[in-house]
Specification:
single chain, alpha+beta, six-stranded antiparallel beta sheet
């Protein structure tokens, strides 16, 4: 193996470990909410209600607001310098930040949690596992999405039943320029060791 390949493999293993750690941290936070409130957080929690409900169960370094305000860690504003921070899986398109704009906070390990409540069936928790100041800042490589279902189960995006599930890998493709490409990679990233060996 060449040195760049070895370095790249080590880096990818670090991202894999960080994803698994963060998936556990998110699940633990939801479990702590249930223990304290006697019920699971479900997808119908309501607009802007998820962040205040669960933030205290994380080790938070910085509260970044909702993502729509000036000064948010990642502003969802086309005029903001951070608007083009994240790309799709193949790096060919900037992604829409409106999937990450109902709450943001940085954890003590540097990872950043994003909340989104589109409607009663699309409630997402996403994580940039190595922080927004470190690359590659790509959906499905260091930015990963999870979905809460109507029973309060946390599903890795790309699993059957999630918004970005596709039998044809439309949302986790090494060749697609689709702006949402990468949204469906979380399931593969958590379950398939081969996923990390050949990132685009």
């Amino acid at each position: 193996m060449t040195l760049p390949t070895v370095v790249n493999n080590i880096y990818n293993r670090q991202l894999e470990a960080a994803l698994k750690k963060n998936a556990s941290v998110i699940e633990q936070a939801l479990n702590m909410y249930q223990a304290e409130n006697g019920m699971r957080v479900t997808c119908d929690i309501g607009f802007h209600n998820l962040k205040p409900a669960i933030i205290k169960y994380f080790n938070v370094l910085k509260d970044c607001g909702y993502g729509t305000e000036v000064g948010s860690c990642i502003e969802n504003n086309v005029s903001a310098t951070s608007y083009n921070t994240y790309k799709n899986f193949t790096g060919t398109n900037s992604i829409y930040l409106n999937l990450f704009d109902d709450g943001q906070f940085v954890l003590t390990d540097g990872s950043i949690i994003f909340i989104n409540n589109i409607n009663d069936s699309r409630t997402y928790i996403s994580v940039d596992v190595n922080g927004y100041n470190k690359g590659p800042n790509r959906l499905g490589q260091d930015l990963f999405m999870f979905q809460i279902d109507n029973k309060g189960k946390l599903l890795p995006m790309g699993a059957e039943g999630t918004t970005y599930y596709s039998e044809t890998d439309e949302y986790c493709s090494k060749t697609s320029n689709n702006i949402n490409n990468g949204a469906g990679c979380t399931y593969k990233a958590l379950t398939s060791p081969a996923f990390w060996k050949s990132l685009p």
